[in-house]
Every structure is written in C-alpha cells, then in structure tokens.
## 1
Amino acid sequence: MNRPWCLPLLAALASCAGGDDSAASTEATACESGPVQDVIDTRLSLDLAQLTGEARISACPERGSGQVTLDVSGLDIRAVASGGHRIESHVEGGQLRVPVADDEQVDFTVDYAFAASDKTRFDGWMPDLGVSFTWPYYCGNLFPCEPGLVDGVHFELALTGVPAGQTAVYPDSIPGEAPDYMLGFAVGDYEKMDVGRSDGGVKISAWHFPGQAQAARDGTANMVDVFSFYERTYGPYSFGPVAGTVQVDWGIDSWGGMEHHPYVHVGKWDFGDEEAQNHEMGHAWYGDGVRIACWEDFVLSEGTNTYITARALEQVGGPEQWDYYVDDFLTPTCTGRDVNTIVLPDQTCNEIDFVHHDLWSLATYMKGACFYEEVGDVIGPAALDAIIGEFYQQNVGKAARMQDMIDLIVARSGEGDRAAIESAVTDWLRTEACPEDYAERCRARQERGGR
Ligand SMILES: [Zn+2]
C-alpha cells in the first residue's frame, strides 16, 4: 500500500461415513495449527455479473475448537458442503462457523453472494471503478476468510461474468503464502505491455489504460533491474513465474498503489512514477512475502519497503529518492503539517484500530525508511542488504515483528556499532518527535563498508 493519500459452536458429530453434519477431514496434511486456526488453501470462483462466489477451502481448525470460523461480514451464505454433503453451518455476527469432527485438515465448499462496493467505501469489489480492494481487513466482503495477519493462504482464482470487451487481470493461482488482502483483481479496457523478464526468470508485464503507454514505459523504465536487484539481494520471488503492474482508477484518490501480487495495482495518476511502481513490487519481499504479525508492526512492511525501493533504484542507476522522501513527506511529518506518531508502538499486538490509527500515515513509511538509511550509514548499506536478505529468507511466507528485525540487525553488527543502532531505533522508531536534525540525518549518505 503506497502512501495513504490523500485508508464466532456447534456440537461436533461422529466421522463422515454416517452422513453427519461436520466437514469431512482429509488425509492431505496433518494439522500443526495448534492454538490458532490455519486456512491453507482458498480456491475462489467469482461471477462478477451475478455477484456470486464459490470458495473451496482447506483449513486446519484451532485445536479442540470443533469448528472452523471465517469472516463473512459482507457475504450472503447460500450453502456449505463437504465431501458432497451439505453441512449445517451457522453465521453469527458476520462469522461463519463450520463444525469439524476432529483437529485434522478439512475441505469444504461455501456458496455465497457478495455485494458490490463503491468508491465511498473501498472495501470489496467496486464495479464502478473496475477494481477490488480489501485492505486492511475487509476480505470478508469478497470471500470467506481469516482476516488476521498471522495466517498466510495459497489462493486460486477464476473470474467469470466479465463485461464484454473488457479485460480481467488476475492471478489464477498464487503459490506462496499470502495475506488475505493481497488477493486482488481489476477489470477494464486494458492494453498489455511486456516489461521484460527478471534475472530470476519472472515474466513482468504492465496493463494500462488506452493512451497511457508512455506512462507505463516511464513507470517501468527500471523495473526489471529493480526486480532482479530484489531477487539477487534479498531472495527469490515467492508468488510465481509471472508478475506485473495494473493501472487502476481509484477515483479522486488514484495515487499510490496496492500490493496485490503478483499483479500489483498502481493509481492512474502515479502509473508513470518509478517510486510508486517499484514500491508495490518491493512488497513481495516485505508486507506480502514477510507479513507483519501485528498491526503495530506496520513499519516492518512500509518502512522496510520504502527503504529497499530507494536502495534498489539507486543501485540500478534509477532516480534518487531520498531528497523526494525528505522534502515531500518527512518534512511535513516532522513539522506538524502532517500526522506524526511513534511508528513502532509494539507493546501490544493487534490492539490498535488500525484504520483509524496514526500509524497508517506517511510517518511510518518515512521514519521507518530513515531508520534503515541511518543503520546503513553505520554498518554500510551492503551489510544492511545482507541482513534484510537474511531476514527475508528466514521469514518469507510467515509473519514477523519489527523487533525481530532490530534484533537481527544488532546481532549481525559489531560491538562498536550497537550504540549508534540503538539511538537510531530510539530516535526514528520509538519517539514521536522527529530528531532535531531529521533532514540531514536521513538525507546524508556516509559510505562505509562499501556500497
Ligand atoms: Zn506500501
């Protein structure tokens, strides 16, 4: 997500053979979910004309819970079935409760209808804009889901009911574990442009509106090199053999983008902007690849990603970003013209109302990026790249906390650097007021330990 611009028991019955009411357990995988439920696969078929959906779900129940619970806040549930049998499920307070016989993996199908959303709400499928949007936790308006951050899902998607003459851009399958808000699609009068293939073999394309080819060329001018830099420096792309960027109409807010990998969405007015484009690509590494464990760790996604975007563009000879970051975004944050806040309030986990919290502001993007920039000044940007890469490879497909990243930075840094790193943590992440010399500190780039 690029800069916010301008955003619940049913008695479990005996096993299946007797035609009972619980979802059939399958031999597929032994569940290790333990204290939390784990949605493994969600295979969706959505009819955009009828506004109906079918979700084939594989999940591990929370141990001993006797049920799988999914958010269906915006859905009208028509039927739930498993093993060809209809199941008596319940919807309570927007939660679908599917009874299970034991703690093993279950497969069941949910047939439902969903409502069209619109640009005043931005929380589902918006036919008037031709785009879906469920960030941060509105997936229950489009499909039965577990909107919590910890659970990553493998998705499959099939769209029908696409208006004649329109192109639907969506992934038919996403192999890597993804946050629920990552699944997205766009429908419109698109022209497809081939961008190239990354060193890791990922085929990259762009879909733009008529007359927008130049913007697409400008925005993706260095994308193949930046993508290859991300792969080479942090690790392989986890969302399949293809990726791309899709120009979207978000109405008056058509700036920035949304990390709907493998096909990210970028607002029509920013489609020619390399920072906006490569920021969304970078989320495959931080935000989507490594998910945040708690909303309080939002800086692990946006701070890290804003930093690696500038770092990658710099390394491939693309446009320098730090003056732009400092002048256009950090300075308003630090001088009171824009929201400022402590960007790592991680004493709690998921206890903040994220959508209404100051954490969802430029402060988290910019102060987070400046934290990394300063650590790079202390230990050398190449050494920092290695740590960000190590952390990615340790945590891709999982959820992590920002303190885990800080601990790894400290662990991989020399004794002599600890004090400077600690003050960067305090000044940029754990203090509301910006450091007095915020611009110089974030703009300065001291070469140490090689580029
Ligand atoms: Zn972002």
## 2
Amino acid sequence: MKCLLISLQSNAYVTGLKYIAANIHANSHEARILLLPGYLEPTLSPAIEDFIRDYNPDLIGIGLMSIEFYPAKNITRLLRERFQTPIIWGGVHVSTYPEECIKYADYVCRGEGESAVVSLLEHLRNKGKDVPPNIPNIWVRCNGKIIKQSVSSLETNLDNLPFQEYLPDYYYGFHNGKIYNFAKNPHLFRRYALYSGTCHMMITTRGCPFNCSYCGHTALIAVYGRKVRERAVENCMEELKAVKKDPYVLYINFEDDCFFVHSREWIRKFSEKYKKHINLPFIVRAIPTLLEREKLFMLKDAGLSMIVMGIQSGSDRVNFEIYDRRINFSSVMKAAELISEAKAVPFYEMIVDNPYETEETEMETIDSMSKLRRPYIISLAHLTFFPGTPLTEKAIKDNITTRDSSLYTYMPTKFNETYLNKLLRITPYIPRFLVRYLNKSVTSRRQFHLLLTNILYFTVRMTIEPAIFMFLISRSVNYNIKLTIRTLIGNWRPALSKLIFNYLGKKDLEYTERLISLRKTTPALFEKD
Ligand code: B12
C-alpha cells in the first residue's frame, strides 16, 4: 500500500511526518512526503496533480498545525476535485480540534499517527474505503455520519518506533511550479529548512512536565496526558550515527520541551556516547527550575553549544497568575548563572504583547532582564492565542480574542514595536544604568527618551547583537574557528532576514499576505460550515 504525506509548512523540518513515514516503510508499505510550502493557490498546480497521479497513493495524509488549517482545507478541496483517494488529516491542530477537522477529511487522527496510519493502510487493503475502519485514534466521516474512536494507549516504549532520517530519499518538495526530490536536490531542502538545514532536529522525549497556559501543547494534555516518555540512549545514538554521515549537518537541535527531564544517569550515558560517536555541537531547551549543574556540565563537555530557555516574563505575578508557570525570577537568575558559567550560548525567549500585562509588569520584566548574567541573546515573541489552551479559553471569555484568531496570524516573532518592547529587545546589549534610565512609564517619558531608545533599537540590533551572537557561538564551540565560520555561513540567511525583517523569513510574510489575498479571492474557504 502507498501513502502520500503532505505538509503545507513553510519550513522543511517535518518531524511528525518523518516518523509516520519511517513506520510505514518498516511495516512493508510505501510512503512519500511532499512539502508544499505555504501552498495557498486557488487551483492545483499541474506538477502536483501529475506527481500524485504517477505515484497513485492509496491514502493521502495531510499534517497541520493551526496556522496550516486554511491551506489544508484549500488543498483538500483541490485534491477532491481530481482524485478519489481517501484523505486523512493529523497533527497538533487536528488533535486539538478533531470535531472541526473531520468536516473536511475522510479520516482524522487524534494523537500519534505512527501505528494508526499503518493500521488504516492495512484496513484499506483488506476491506477497502467503503467499510469504516475501527482503529483507535482514527475518526471516520462515512455517509455523512461521524464515527469517533477513543485515543489509543500511548506507545510507552518510544524505542519501538523507527526513528526519522535527516533527509529521507522519499522526501519531495514543490518549488517554482515543479516537484523535486529533496534528497537529490539538497540545496532546495536547505532553502526551505530553518538555519539552512545545517541542523538535524530531533526529540529524545515526548511530553512536557509543565502545562503553561499559553502553550499549544497544553491543549494536547487531554490526548497525551502529562507523563513524559523518553527514548533509550542507544536508540538516540543510532539516529545520530545515521545523521552524522551527512557532512552538511553541523548541529543537532534537540527539540524536547526540556532536555533536563532526563535523569542524571541517562545524561551521563548520553554525554559519554555522544562525545565518542557524534561530537557535533548541539542545542537543547531548558526550563529554569529543571536546570541542574551536574547535568549541564556533563552536556557541555559532550558538545552542548546553546541553551534555549523560556523565561516569558520578568514578573512573577504574570508567570504564576497568567501563564500558570510556577517559576520565580530568582530561579531564572540561578539558571542564567549556571548557563554562563558553562559558557553555553544563553538564548532566552520572552512573550510580549500580552493584553493581560500592565505597564508595571512590562517595566518589571525589563528591570528583571537587566539584572541577568550577561552576555545573552533575547528573543521576543508576540503572544499568540493557540487553539484550545487555557489562556485562549480565558481570552475568548474576556472578549479579547476569537477561537480562530491564530489561524490567520503567522508571525509570533513579529511583535509590536512599542517603546517598552523596543527597550526589552535591546536590554541585554546596552549598559544597565541606561536600561534603568530609559525604563520609564508613558507619563514620565520625554521626547529625548523616545529618540534615544529608537536610535539604540536601530543600531544595537545591527551591530552589538550580531557581534555578541558571534562571540557566544565561537565561545560555545571553544573558539573553534572552522566551526564558528561554518555556523555563521549556515545561518547568514535567517540572520539577515532577522536583521532586515525582524523575524525569520520573507516567506513567512508572503504567507500572511497570501492568506489575506485568498480570503478575498476564495471567501467560501473561510466561511464557517
Ligand atoms: C519541533 C517543533 C517545531 C519544528 C518542526 C515542526 C514539525 N512539523 O516537526 C519547527 C522549528 C520547524 C517548528 C516551527 C513552528 N512551530 Co513548532 N513545535 C515543535 C515542537 C517543539 C515539537 C514537535 C514535535 O516534533 N513533536 C513530536 C512529533 C513526533 O509529534 P507531532 O509533530 O505532533 O506528530 C505526531 C502527531 O501529531 C501525528 N501527526 C502529525 N502529523 C500528522 C499527519 C497525519 C496525516 C497523521 C495521520 C498524523 C499526524 O502523528 C505524529 C507522530 O506521532 C512542538 C511543541 C511540542 N511539544 O509538541 C512545537 C509546536 C508544534 N510548534 C508550534 C508552532 C506555533 C510553530 C510555528 C507556527 C511557530 C512560528 N511561527 O514560527 C512554526 C511553524 C512552522 C511552519 N509552519 O513552517 C506550536 C503549534 C500550536 C498549534 N496549535 O498550531 C507548538 C505546539 C508549540 C507551542 N508551544 O505551542 N516547530
């Protein structure tokens, strides 16, 4: 049986689809992945039609986050006009809103798709598409009726799942009206991949011990529960050894919500084997209260380069009462001390433009961040009300947002350039006395404060920040010139677009513009059914 898995992401890293495809192949079926980056055309490109007709899949799967809801609805409409092939939807948005999604697909997958898709392929082979399947996780729309299934018990041993490849030979992409095999045209994969594809994105766990009110993953607790599942070190090493064979991979980017959920023993074994067999710089994510000295220094010795740590706000009230994040800023200070002592690159993520914040809490955040151990890199994200999160449900009740607002906004990193956001954005890079001097309420600000902040905001991001970033990168790889240069070469495009557009890519802007234009040309697509 053949399955075609489609992603509409603008970014070529599709971990979930790669896992499903790997499991399909491991069960003696066939699969292809097709990236249609931000595809939002009112008609189906002949190249896509020919590709599907030639491959002639038995099942078409479409993976979507919330931002891809309308592109998924659009491509499903276009595919139905030409093919009888059954269509299944899956992914974060589908697991959050299966009711909504089953209106458009023949099947939806609520939860993990590896086993569910293989079972569906075998059902289609043995019983055909006119017989509704009875498979956990899979809801069916049959003769206008919706048949819901319970969520299967989770795969407890993640090592049973075949792992993903960096660039599988069955991965295709749509580019300038043509379909290319990414493995045969790796430059195209890199064109659509974050950091120009210089890193392999992987996960060693599934699940997060926290349930922050703004996080899209919190909306999935009903599906996945709170237990964090981890892979064995040996299983992770197998994936890494395979990835390491591709000389273009410079970094490993561990996308686990918090790498420090692993035990000391797991991290000891991992660090020893990683240093011996892989020895590439790597990036992990950390939650301040879970960052531990011993684990940190073992990872640093193994090649840890950057730590991405969510701080979100410098106000304990905002973190505790609005984000349901029981993390004091004093714990953040301790974590920042440790990260700097370990000479890893500290990359701190903040949430701004939160309607529940006050001028006081925004000023408190600037004051707190000015006290953190330097140097560090700061990243501001515009608060997005992701579907199904506790904060979104609250904001809907308070008439602050609507259920579908996040379906249209694609630019979390495009924040409002208010006075305090600009000051927060440059806080790590200007003298602390200057931060204190400029950190003023709207009533006590003078023209001079606005002028100085604007000048600094413009100049610091063009000069000091890139210099500090380069220094931190170089220090994190022990001043290894070759690695530093290759890292910079690998990152010039996103760095440049961040510099110019103040977020990650021209493509993302075009995406939002196309979404707006399609609303004008095909309003039916956006109408509630
Ligand atoms: C890794 C990651 C990324 C990576 C890779 C994304 C990818 N598709 O793999 C990158 C950096 C590219 C990324 C980008 C973004 N991300 Co992201 N990402 C994550 C992260 C940290 C882990 C996802 C992961 O690898 N999970 C493990 C895999 C195995 O699970 P999975 O992807 O869910 O897939 C399983 C099931 O969902 C299902 N499934 C998935 N697809 C399909 C398809 C079919 C047909 C079927 C049947 C089943 C199925 O089966 C899969 C295997 O079990 C999550 C947070 C989290 N903890 O989940 C955020 C998360 C998914 N990202 C999020 C967001 C918002 C984004 C961005 C929009 C942010 C931005 N604008 O920059 C971009 C969008 C990218 C784009 N559209 O181009 C939100 C999504 C919220 C929502 N409701 O949509 C999350 C939940 C983070 C959050 N805090 O809210 N992301």
## 3
Amino acid sequence: MAANYKRNVQALPDVVSAEGAIHEPKEVGAGPTGVRVAMQHALDEMGLVRSLKVLNQVNQKDGFDCPGCAWPDPEDRSALGEYCENGAKAVATEATQARVTPEFFRVWSVEALSKKDEYWLGKRGRLTHPMVLRSGSSHYEPIAWDDAFRLIGDELQALDTPDEAVFYASGRTSNEAAFLYQLLARRFGTNNLPDCSNMCHESSGYGLKQVIGVGKGTVTLADFEKAEVIFVVGQNPGTNHPRMLGTLQKAKRAGATIVHVNPLPETGLRRFKHPQEVRGWLGTGTRLADLFLQVRINGDVALFKGIMKALLERDDADDVLANAFIEEKTTGFEAFSEDLRQTPWSSILDASGISKAEIEATAELVAKHERLIICWAMGLTQHVNGVANVQTMVNLLLMRGALGKPGAGVCPVRGHSNVQGDRTVGINPRPSAVFLDRLGEAFGFAPPRRHGLDTVEAIQAMHAGEAKVFISMGGNFLSATPDTAYTAEALQRCRLTVQISTKLNRSHAVTGQQALILPCLGRTESDEQASGLQFVSVENSMGIVHNSRGSLSPASEHLRSEPAIVAGMARATLGDASGIHWDEMVAGYDHIREKIEAVIPGFDNYNQRVREPDGFYLPNPVRDDQQFNTKTGRAHFTVHAIPKHDLPEGAFLMMTVRSHDQYNTTIYGLDDRYRGIKGKRRVVMLHPTDMTEAGLRKGEEVDLVSVYDGVERIAPRFTVVPFSLPRRSAATYFPEANVLVPVNHVAKGSNTPASKSVVIWLRRRPA
Ligand code: SF4
C-alpha cells in the first residue's frame, strides 16, 4: 500500500435499515422479564458455567465491582446476586468469549470498520493483542508492547510542548490506574486530563462546590430509609442505576413519598417488581413515584422556583422554612427570596409546563417534611444552565434545612463505576494548588501549574492542530462526545491516537495518522503482578472506597493491566530521569495506594481500610458535620433566571437519552423494552399531537437537522415514534444523535455539552 495512502474513513457509520417495531411502553420495571433478559445476555456471551461463576462474584465483598454505574452496594449483599439486569449485561459484555484477534484486523480495514455502528463493533468481543495502524496504512497490524510504548514515547517527546498531548480517562479506570495516569501526564508536564465526567456530572461538581463546599453527594444508602420525601429529577434509574429501584422501594416501605420529575414517564419509577421477592414475581410490583411531574425539557428551574415560591408564600402564613438553619448556616437568602417574589407565576407555569395546583401540592409536601433527598442525573446537568439547575435543587433543600442530617441531602447519581474516584485521585484539568503541592512533594518534581484542557477544549484543540497526541484510558471518545463529525476531524488531525481498551468501538476506526490499540485487563479478570495477585479500588456515588478483584483468566495472555500500561508508557516517555519508581508501584499496588494516601486527604491507612469488606467512606464535611467549606463558610442561596427556549417555527427541543439496552456508548442490544421500542435505535420520540400537526406518521423516516452558528448538522433516517412527552420536545438516543450537538453548545461554568436541550427540525425524506 502506497505510504501516502489516504484512508477514506467515515465519521458516521452506515445507516442500517432496521425493521423493528413500536409497542406501548411498559408499566412495570425489572421483575421476571428483567431476569430472563439478563440471563439470556449472559448465556449468549459467556455460556452457562462462566455466567454462574462471574455473576456470583459481581458486587460481592470478595468479588469485583460492576463495570456499570456507581450505585453503592448495600452492606447486606444478596447471596442470590447483587446486580441488576444492566449490570449483568455489562459484565457479560466484558467477560464475553468472543475475541478480536490480529486475524480480524487482517480482514477488516479501518475504512470498513468505520462504516460499522457501535452495536456491531461491540459484539466482536475482547481485544487480544496490541495493534498498530501505521501512517498511510489501511489495516491495523500486531505490535510488541515495548515497540508500542516506544512509539508513544517518541511521539510525546517530539512535541513542541507537553500541552500538545491529551490524556483522557473514562470512568471505568480504577483509583490506582487513574493516579498513575495523572502522575504520568503531570511528570510529562501537562494538566490536559479531561475525563468522561466533563460530559456528565461536571455541572454537579462545579455547582455544588460553589454553594455547599463539596462537589459530591451528601447522603448514604441508609439515609434513603430515613427520608420523608425523595425527588428523582432528570434521571432514569430503571435503566441507568437499576439497583436504585430497590433502595427506593425500601424507602417507600419506610414511609417516604417519591416525586418523579422528568419530561419522560420512565417505567422504572412507575412500578417496580423486585426480582428477589416472591411478590416481585407473582404480584403487580410496587408503585414507586407518588407524584409524576412531566416537566418541559429544561423546565426544572421554573418548576423548582414555583415550588419554592409557593413555599415562601406558605411561610408568610405559617413558619415552614428552617429559619434557624437559614440564619446560622446560609447566606444570600434575602436576594434569593426577593427574586422568587418578583418571579411571576405566569413565567413559572409557562416554562415548567406544570399546573399551579401540582406545584402547590408539591410545595405542601415539602412544607410538611424536612428530611428531603434530591437525586439527579444528566437531565439536569447537560444544559447551558446545567450549573443553575443543580444549584436550584440546593436552594430548595436550604429552605428546609435538609442538608447534613439523616434522611436529607443531595444525591447526584454517577453513571460510571469510578468516575467519582478518578476525579478524587487527580484526573482533573483544573487541579487545586494544594493537590499539586502535595503531588510534587511526594514525587520530588514541580507539577505544571497551568490549567489543562477539559473534554470540549481538547476536541477544539485537536481540531485546531494545537493538540497532536491523544491518549484514551478506556472509553469511546468519538461516540461519547458531541458534534461527531467535528470530533472525527479533530481526532484525524492528531499525529497519534492511543486507545487503551477492552473491546472494539468506533474510536478504533476514526483515528490519528498513526494509531495504537492497547488491550487491557477488565474488572472480571485476575491481575497478576510481580508481587502476586492484585486488587484495585473504586469510589461509588456515595463516597465509599472499596476494593475490586477479578478472578477470571484474562481474555488473552497478551493483555496488561491499566497500571502496567501506564508504567510502560512512562518508562518509554520519561526514562529513568523521572525519578519515579513505576515498576515498583506496578509490582504491588499497595505502593500506589501508599502514594495516594500521601497526596490525597481522607485516604489514611488506605491499604488497611480498603481491605475491609465494605471499604470506607471518604470525608464529606456536609454529610459528616453539616459544615459548608465555601468561600464564606456558609451554604449559598443562589438566584437563577428561568431559561428561555423560544423555539423557531417548526422546531423541537431535543434531548438525547439512553435506551434500556445501552450503557453509555456500549450497545448491548437494539431494544428499548421499557419504552416499547424494538429492534431500532435511530428513532425520534414525539408528542402525538405534534406529529399530527406536522403531518408525520408513526414509523415514518425523517432526517434530523440542527443549525447553530450557521452550521447545519444532519442525522439521517430517524423513525418517528409517538411517545408521552411535552409538546415541541423530541427524544433520541446517543451516540446516534450526538452529531447534532455543537461542540460549543455547553453549560456555563462546567463546559458540559448541553445534549439535553438542542434545537432541531425534522426534514421529511423523499417518498
Ligand atoms: S445498579 Fe449499576 S452498579 Fe449496580 S449492578 Fe446495576 S449497573 Fe451495576
């Protein structure tokens, strides 16, 4: 093949026609059907014996942590199995028997692979060998590990400045691997450490840190059974955090009232059948949500301002606010309450789409109870006003003094098993000076002080040719990020892209001029190092750090652990001059944990405490002492305007969501069982009246179009599906609809892509 061969790689996969079907949404989540579907996935990928072995270990005290979401494990683990349907799918996908070998890459060129979608690529199985795509070549070929590390070292050393390199991390990365990874980047000289939380809960961390002094949730599992009212806002736990339904059921049985706030009536929160209860098989299940507020897309500030305004008006009559708490622990109440009084009900009702009666009923509920928990996910964070959404939730809790006490607090539910842990151990483009001081002290070097690039900034820098080497620890950057065509161009402008992965995905097909695939161990697999078998650790949504040890034989003898891969890259890039004992730390991960303990507060006696069956809680001043480590030492009330979405003629406000057969960009199957959609992923859910007004039929194919800054973006061939959602709203799945989300359409402050409120049009296709 000519050296200057130009690869004709597609940024978007070919659109495969899918017959599929559209049924009525399900009324009940989990139950026997969930078990059947989970077992089918397990048997298809792993076979019976392997399934029994692996599923008996997931989330158990001597087992491995589920590579799915970050919902915590109860102290009393179920011997029947401590996992949900989607946890079983995540485990089955990682522990699959299918393999992607060098022979596979000999047959499939990157051009051919770039035509394939995530579902097809993900089903090829586990990567077995390090592979290289040389400049001008059409196919990956095998490469020795040392040669791969040398290529990385040479390319990094060839850069004009360390800031031309980007070290991206996905939330599956363990604490030990993440800490070494950030150390490599900083010893090399850059803070370019973007991660997947930039695209999900960055608005939560950023917003909470400002108003309560900690960027994490402040509740424990036990708090749910003490709570009187639980709000679940902009979150679909039935699909994205399924074991949370069991926790909500327990809370419900303990007397809690559950308020579901979402544009979509998510099945899991309607009724839940616990698959480990007889009545979960024979009965009709537990009704979870007592109140469903079908808010307009991005209508949450309006809705919660309405609830707070009603509460304030109620307080004028009888004392319902936590005045002593407000007096003693908060600041900004005057401006906040004045803004509420000045906010007309008309704008609240119009922007929220919720009736005054429903709002007042919710306010009444809040007025009667003080143990309130507010849970949320991307439905709040992925908007231009994502930070304002998060801080508005805090305002309500402050009015009732519902922070830092049993049964009360904030609960941003993390979607990736260790995304919170990665941030805690240093995966952060904007590290604190204290962290850098302690890191420099522990390793005897001067870390870079210039803040680095987050995910959106990294895409823009690569597109501008300012970043030339992109390394990805796990994840699927191309499909997880917005503006797919633009991001594809950005990656292809790099001199080198490196993917440290377990399975194939589209980021392996859309690459830099040269590319490397470095296959790593998964969570389910045993990790043997010089000092013996190792375990890693992760931090869940509630700040519990616990161990995870796999026991399966690795999918290939050529795999390496994430820490070992980082050490290999570090040796080749930094040589012995770094003065850092990478091999010693990889030989026994206790050495890594000793360093984490030395650098990061809260990890005292790390190696001893992480061996405890339930791990340990990291300090949380709000949860532990109702202490607000903000600039003022008080919690802050904040004032936020109601966002305006004046839709142009014929336009819709689109939000991207996951189907029930998906985990981030990993597509387990083509069904979205809870929403009644079968065998289809390119769907656009619309209100039936909007369909009628637009003359659209159920099942008709349309193109979706967004226009931002004069740039038209098209996502072709989406099937119209009638669904219950507010007027002029549209729901689609990512990654298919990410091509419509402009890279610079982001949340103020947190820079999180605003994938939940994108203006689109539907363009009819020629008959
Ligand atoms: S709830 Fe989340 S962590 Fe738990 S088994 Fe399911 S996917 Fe895994």
